[in-house]
């Protein structure tokens, strides 16, 4: 297609198919909180995932392993441009074609061009968050190419015409009864609470699709530069099907997923599966280093890798924000997030929900559109505590809050859309607060006055007193009590 | 400028300047020197915990056990390699207690519907196993194509106990994978599964419903 | 990347007491209890009269210029090399963990780092520097403990509160579900996202009640005003106090003795 067909957007990577207004966070949060089904589905799932993670790391020196994971990722990022070139060279030598895309639209075009060149009409997909970020399905379907998800969770979400609510478990917001009804309505399966039956039905439907697919599209968990190897982590086997059965396999990945050495994946894999689902390892760890060789009997004839930037090289510029790119997409941060647990993944309105979404999405959609994301956190630190590669998520949230109000003259803001949340009234309040709290005399006078007139304190304090009584001013401040004591 | 040049330029001319790479220390992945028996016990425990089945057999007796297993499942046929020693031995065994032996010796395109709809079980070799995670190492080859371990509902894998490694890290270094990777390499740890419906485990969602390991001691 | 292992100082003869603005205005009794506990341990407590606020509210709201101005006004309050004790994991965390970042590339960089290294959360200080031995003089009771997220994760002292309560022979510590989960305070978070914060505090209160407690103690006044305020609004019989107030009262207040 010509570039004039792409819908121009204020920030890269947001498609015309993008229906959710990220800024409507509050309304969605309210709806989710008052939806007992959502609350229950997420609470139950997150409690289970947290317990499984803890059990999976028993007997490990977890802190040393997290150090290793973090250092592997940092080493990869330190040499990122060289590693990408090495990766391309190795993959090319192995027979895999490498493409580069500055943003999601460009990546979609590359995938479409490959399909068109092959006359492909049916694409089957393995789970890929980057393809969600690109909104590839909408893009292809708008251009007459069927794109069918094959990961069971993604398949369910696609049947429901929704987006994933979790990066590892896309359909975690639904319970069995809801899924049964959905499958019944869309595919004609019987209504049943038997998960085996529902799974078997999906298997049957998807097997046909695998056989007839022209192209398989997958993501990549790690791309190894030294050997030119694309690694995929999965349990279902749909990833293997996607990358083995159709004659052409297109892998899409963010440019940050490269690691220098094959050895690196052993540690990252150990961290990834345990952090994500509490598994010691997933059923399949699939390492692809080339298309089918001439004498081989199966495997794709053509393998492509699309390296997608989509804002990552911009994140890469800043020493602190760079840590965002360490992420290996395990989802542990959302599993442990008390906010995510309450509101669920769809409330965020972004491809990546939860803590990682809050620090990543502002770069992709801009801080103007994503203005509520950094504030939707109590900064409790649970995310940073469990991150397998030690991303200091709370610190990055604070940094993005600063960026969204242009709050630091010493460190000018650089994220797209920065300053969008700076309001005159709030800025004045903080200025006044700063004035008083940097003048001890004024502070003592003001607090003393408040204490003296504590009985006149208003009982209603806006949002605070919707769920709580107002804190009661003491009749005498600590300052005053100590002054009296020392008299 | 091409997309590649644009991206690499931005990465190379980083506003924050050159980054320094930290040292990495893999010692946390080290495990004690387990004996083969210890490794086998660990392997068995790990793979059984994810619904895999382990049979300890002898080099002479594995076909007997295989026949029993396939009979107990009512398997009508068994997909075998056309070139690998395993396939050859099964064909030459001339046993009537084995089901029909199907040989994978043609490109998949010529018989895909049969493979997807008619084959009940397949048997492959392995390049070893991993004790800690209960994983099988498979490097599909011309002799043992990729789909053998993926499409039929039952996958039977033959593992030499002497080829068990403590960890993935150890296996990779011992077999010097970094020197050259095959087109496809796999770790398989149990049958295909999903928990995408309300965290309830279900097996055989896309790949095999059963993974049976014959460990030759 | 990893916090250095805390090396506790020898028990000093004097400490600076940094009271925090919430204690100053709303919970001065907790501050007095902390001071008295320290004094009972034979430590002279210096309260710099010019202290106001650590700057955290502006810092976490993104107004770093304003936070820096206020924080800078605190940096001159601790000229001697005595430890600085703070009856709050949150303010302690701000001073210990975030001051160095806040003042990086400023003339205060070295001073901020030096001060950060001297900051101790008060219960941690009582337990691990003073090696306090508490003699329980109160009636048998059951109490739940909520350790603030900053005390737990920034200061790394999750075990301190339960250890101190464990010294009180007549106090049973109620076992709660998800003790590590945030109560939903989060400073301005409670105002900016009232519904989410409300859902969090409501569940926290439920776990405390389900634990079989009618009262709870906490390391931080933010959590205290959140949980206790919610209980009061909801009419749930659950009262809360700062752990320092509780420890001081249980051990007899002024009349209490050290064993």
TrEMBL record, chain A:
GO MF terms, alphabetically ordered: 4 iron, 4 sulfur cluster binding; metal ion binding
Domain 4Fe-4S ferredoxin-type, residue spans: 318-347
PROSITE patterns, per database record: 4FE4S_FER_1, 4FE4S_FER_2
Record key words, sorted: 4Fe-4S, Electron transport, Iron, Iron-sulfur, Metal-binding, Repeat, Transport
Matches recorded under Pfam families: Fer4_8 (PF13183), LUD_dom (PF02589), LutB_C (PF11870)
Classification via NCBIfam families: LutB/LldF family L-lactate oxidation iron-sulfur protein
Protein name stated in the entry: Iron-sulfur cluster-binding protein
Taxonomic source organism: Marinobacter profundi
Automatic annotation (TrEMBL), chain B:
Limits of the LUD domain: 41-216
Record-linked Pfam families: LUD_dom (PF02589)
Superkingdom of origin organism: Bacteria
InterPro entries, alphabetized: FTHF_cligase-like_sf, LUD_dom, NagB/RpiA_transferase-like
Family annotation (Gene3D superfamilies): NagB/RpiA/CoA transferase-like (3.40.50.10420)
PANTHER family from the UniProt entry: LACTATE UTILIZATION PROTEIN C
Stated name of the protein: Lactate utilization protein
Organism annotation: Marinobacter profundi
Biological classification of the source: Bacteria, Pseudomonadati, Pseudomonadota, Gammaproteobacteria, Pseudomonadales
UniProtKB/TrEMBL annotation, chain C:
One MF term in the entry's GO annotations: oxidoreductase activity
Highest taxon of source: Bacteria
A GO cellular-component term linked to this record: cytosol
Signal peptide: none
One Pfam short name: CCG
TM segment ranges: none
Cysteine-rich domain sequence ranges: 16-96, 143-227
Designated name of the protein: Oxidoreductase
Organism whose genome encodes this protein: Marinobacter profundi
